[in-house]
Model the fold of this input.
Amino acid sequence: MANTMTISKEKKEARIVSVFIYAFLILLAIIYILPLLWVVITSLKNDNTLMLSPWAMPEHIEWGNYSFAWTKGHLGTAMLNSLIVCGTTLIVSMLFGSMAAFAIAKLRWKLSKIAMYYFLIGMMIPIHTILIPLFVQFSGWGLSNSLIGIIIPYITFSLPITIYIMVGFFEGIPNELFESACIDGCSVYKMFGTVAIPLAKTGLMVTGLMSFVANWNELLVAMVFISNEAKKTLPVSLTKFVGPYHTNYCQMFAAIMIAIIPTIIAYVAFANQIVEGLTAGAVKG
Amino acid sequence: MDKLMRNKKAIILFIAPALILFTGVLFIPVCKAVYYSLCNYKINYQPKFIGIKNYVMLFTKDKTMAIALRNSIFFMIFSIVTQLICGLILAALLTNIKKGRNFFKNVYYLPCVLSSAALGLLWMFVFMPRLGINQMLASLGFFGGDCTLGPQWLFNTEGYIILPIWVISFVALWQYVGQSMMLYMAQISGISTDVYEASYIDGCSKKQSFFYITLPLIKPMVATAMSLNAIGSLKFFDLIYNMIPEGFLSHKADVIATHLYTQAFKFSKLGYGSAIGVVLLVLCLIMTVLINKFVKTESYDM
Done:
């Protein structure tokens, strides 16, 4: 700000204030990082030392916790299942979502506004409400205990936000580009594939990451639809680490680590895009 | 060009997959849920229409539902209020600092992308009676050095809103405040600096500019963040399910979602569970409408 008349006293005050602000922010950051660090440390200890001194560093590193969680805790299978489920959901929801968004944003038809509202209402419906009818329906179709049975609802619940954000991106593409493509003899399908999609790459990236994170962490649907150990996803397998039979906390912490490491890696690599994505939907609203 | 964009076949082809999925997996099931909620429906039996009996039972006889409703509404109010205040404070602080903004932003936001199921297990351990926080406090000399005398964070069932619910509310605040912060920051960074400069020339202090410029200009986002919080906290399931072992508190820490889960999938009362689901849906819709009506004002051009 062009406030050149600041007197030095005010400057001093501002400096004190900023010291306080930083002290507060750093303290808060510690509250955020410490529990996660503690998970790392505990996952490398064994239960005896944990009970004696839960906050101490491990004297002897126990990699065994990880191999136990990975094999006996079925987290290896769960990780693979989660990858299949989230990967498929990601690709299909991005494809269907951007197709619908293209039709709403660029193609000309009377009901496009209504279609948009129809999809938007979906954002307000909690998945809990449709859990029972879906469960009944899918059991009838033999889809319970299969990965497809959870992929379908995941795709559906990823669609509204995907469509919402992609419509915003497609609307930002100037019509002239499509007109010139039209003059070059492009069909609508080719326009979608060669003009619209490449120009809305950021949007795809953002929505993809968002739906990946949301589905990676989803617990309720997966828990209801899948009871077969070999088909469970990560969050469901995790819940089995607590309970009356399991009291080995170090192994539980190793399991927590296995579950959150992929998201942490994705977050570190794509922090800006994830942040943008999670706000983009709301900002445009 | 115009003709190309009006190509009926293309339109249908583009919209159909999403529309079919959406209708089949979302809208028809919602209608079915409403129908089931009016039925006596046990797993492996045909649904039998019984009118509004499920709802009457739900609101007059079901003590757990009363607790669940109370807990969920508490969660909702708690998260709306605390997330609004903490989110705004964080956003205001972070937009005003020069160094390290991205670092702090990313750190506070991190738990939002992590699995609630995993974080729930972590916090459950931290709040165990003999381990975690109690032991840490005891070693610092609290409770006369005996950690068993510390508060039973997750097992105390006294009071109108029991202690575990408070604890979980704070954990949820810890996990999700980053989201509100991020939404407010996005909106604040959209406000042109000209507005602030003009206000400083007019003799406005930083505090005043926050209350008279920033707040009114981010009001639409406040509405959005509040409705996200409201719906999110009504749907709350993962943290509670993982922090409180099933049956430990004899359903005193139930919320609507956990009650639905137990009724429908433990006791296989599908009709009754659907009624709970419909109540949840109605609550979500009411909150969205209410918040948008009372908080949202016309958006200003920025």
In short: Chain A has two domains: 8-42, 74-283. Chain A has a mean pLDDT of 85.
